[in-house]
Design goal:
Oligomer: single chain
CATH superfamily of the largest domain: Zn-dependent exopeptidases
Order of helices and strands: EHEHEEHEHEHHHHH
Structural class: alpha/beta
Radius of gyration: 19 Å
CATH architecture of the largest domain: 3-Layer(aba) Sandwich
Mean pLDDT: 92
Low-confidence stretches: none
CATH class of the largest domain: Alpha Beta
Shape: globular
Helix content: 40-55%
Strand order of the largest sheet: 2-1-3-6-4-5
CATH topology of the largest domain: Aminopeptidase
């Protein structure tokens, strides 16, 4: 299964930016990158909308909304997860799901699973929400509307309010952002289970596996080294077996 992961905002568009606190765009990216690593290690195929704090292609805020909404279809994804963090005086986590699923459907089901896992790590739930456009004909949020047009289930996750001290304390370190990503992984696995990845059989497979697990960096370098140091392949395969 291929999952598009979209870290909201980026570049000049910081998202919620509270004095003395990490900008939303940076928090979104930290969660997205960790989620991608976890999903890959669990056997999912992933596509990241952005891999750096800058916006893709130097786009501005309005352009990012349109481009990121079209990204899942562009990469052939079967599911889209848009990662955001809130502001505006509230508290707790909320999920925006596609309006077509208001009475039941994949985006609502995933939203409920996400909130259940968020609660398991100490966050409050504001519920799964739906918002129609002004003509009550489609989703208000363009990213959900684009995905629906392409037949792709999609959600927007808003884990915490960055302008609320209690909420911000739940996401103010990289460790806590990784905990959010781990909760998201568990939710995806509940709704979209996949078979466990096969054990690596070759040196290159082992290197890619260990990189996805976060045990090594620069996998391309190590793959190149396989042709130079013959015994490295066996070493990496044994290491990968121990990690599993």
């Amino acid at each position: 299964m291929k999952i598009a992961i979209i870290a909201g905002h980026g570049g000049v568009d910081t998202g919620a930016n509270i004095t003395g606190r990490t900008p939303e765009a940076n928090i979104n990216l930290d969660v997205a990158l960790e989620l991608g690593r976890l999903l890959s290690a669990a056997g999912y195929e992933t596509a990241q909308y952005r891999n750096a704090y800058d916006a893709p292609k130097g786009l501005n805020g309005t352009q990012i909304i349109d481009d990121s909404g079209k990204f899942p279809a562009r990469v052939g994804a079967e599911l889209a997860i848009h990662i955001h963090h809130n502001a505006g005086g509230g508290v707790g986590a909320e999920i925006w799901a596609q309006v077509a699923d208001e009475r039941g459907g994949p985006s609502k089901t995933l939203g409920e699973a996400l909130l259940s896992e968020y609660k398991s790590i100490g966050q409050n739930s504001r519920g799964v929400k739906f918002r129609w456009n002004s003509t009550n004909s489609a989703d208000y949020f363009g990213v959900l509307r684009h995905a629906k047009t392409s037949g792709i289930p999609a959600v927007i996750t808003e884990y915490a309010f960055l302008d609320n001290g209690t909420d911000y304390a739940k996401i103010d370190t990289l460790e806590k952002r990784r905990a959010q990503a781990a909760a998201m992984l568990r939710a995806v696995q509940k709704v979209y289970p996949v078979s466990a990845p096969q054990k690596p059989k070759t040196g290159e497979e082992a290197i890619r596996y260990l990189a996805a697990k976060g045990r090594i960096t620069a996998p391309d370098y190590w793959v190149e080294m396989l042709g130079i140091v013959k015994w490295l392949g066996d070493m990496f395969v044994k290491w990968a077996e121990d990690v599993q």
